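Chapter review: from sequence to fold.
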Amino acid sequence: MMDLALLLLQQGTTGNPAPIGVFRFFAAFVLIVTIYSSFLGFTYWISKDE
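The token string follows.
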């Protein structure tokens, strides 16, 4: 999954970003935040006392 996020973050040009590049950046950002929050949620779930 992280490979997919890194692939989405790569852009062909560095100057004057195209709209598809901006979309790919935000798609990768949302993917990374989702993975990070799921790890936090799993850590909370596994460590809580019942």
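Two observations follow directly from the output. Residues 19-47 form the longest helix (29 residues). The chain has a mean pLDDT of 78.
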